[in-house]
Amino acid sequence: MGKLRKIVLSCITASVIGGAFYTCDQIEKSEDNRAKSEELYEKSMIQDTRQLYEDNSTRNNQENKYSQRNN
Fold first, then answer.
1. What is the distance between the alpha carbons of residues 39 and 32, in angstroms, rounded to a whole number?
2. Dist. CA 57–CA 59, nearest whole Å
3. pLDDT tens digit string along 3-30?
């Protein structure tokens, strides 16, 4: 009975330790994914801002040309 108990406890201990390593690995992967997501979001926001600026600039130039023709 003593040997069986040691084997069971060894298996439980190995499972707990293995689970801890697995959990740490998953946390690390999720942090990497979060960092990548934040980076992509920032790049997207920069591109959106540039596009809005270009759109506004183009519209303002067209409005200026139109108003100059009418004057």
1. 11
2. 5
3. 878 888 888 888 888 777 787 788 888 8
Question: Burial, 58: exposed, middle or buried (Cβ in 10 Å; 0-12, 13-18, 19+)?
Answer: exposed
pTM of the model: 0.49
- Measured distance CA(46)–CA(43) in Å, rounded: 5
Helices (H), the chain: 2-70
What torsion do the CA atoms of 32, 35, 40, 42 make, to the nearest 10 degrees?
-170
What SS3 state is found at 12?
helix
CA–CA dist 32, 27 (Å, integer): 9
From residue 27, give the alpha-carbon distance in Å to each of 19, 23, 32, 62, 71. 12, 6, 9, 52, 65
